[in-house]
Amino acid sequence: MKNLNEITKQELKAIKVVTFDIDGVIIPTGTQLRENQDGTEFYMKSKQLSTKFIKNLKILKKYVRLNFSSGRNILYLKSLVNEIFDQDIIIQAENGNLTWFEGRIIHPVYSTNYFNKLRDIRERIKAMMLTDKRIRGFEPKMFILTPHCDQMEDIPNLVKQIDSENDLYCLWTNEGYDIGSKTMSKGQGIINIAKELKIDPKQIMTTGNNYNDKEMLQSGKGVSVEPDRIQAEYFIEHKPEELGGELLAEFLLRYYAS
Ligand SMILES: [Mg+2]
Q1: Per-residue pLDDT, 46
Q2: Domains in the chain, CATH or no CATH each
Q3: Helix, strand, coil share (%) of the chain residues, nearest 5
């Protein structure tokens, strides 16, 4: 891995899209979620983009297209970026599963068997919630399943048990697990955007800090903001109180200004 300061002007010139991961990259981590067992009551608390970052994005989007890729759902992402939203903004939700691109929503087609598996896993976790206080509820999503809970082997074990074909991933997110089809990832999402824009995936800069970012850091021009956890061609250094994505925006603005 190379420090981002080593990136060449030529490489930066080729970049057409900058992709920001959300949690731990452009907003501090620490989303709280609580749901009752029958799903009739739901509480969720998360953070916002900083005013300074929004100001920087407004300038940055004059030079490159901006993409926001997250495991979170599309409604949340849309409201997060509402202040800068226009036809050039791309949103990728649920680990690459839903792409908002120029007024359309693009998503893969899954079999009934896939959705049934997610339902079966959900029902089993709901049953566990009755006695296991480590499980707090499910984040509302369409194509993946996201139980919020402590890190506990019971969840990946349950996925293995129900998914005998080994079609599903089960990734720890620091707040719970993302469970979804291995055929889709944030990385595949980047390849799909590159096709839409008729550019090379390496012309899309990607950022990330976690396991669900691995593929997109590989398929795009990857910048890891958590190099101890996740590898990429480049990494960006930041202090614990700083957000790597905010520093990247400042870095790119300095480049475009020069
Ligand atoms: Mg992340």
Answers
A1: 87
A2: 2-35+46-108+184-257 (3.40.50.1000), 112-181 (3.30.1360)
A3: 35, 25, 40
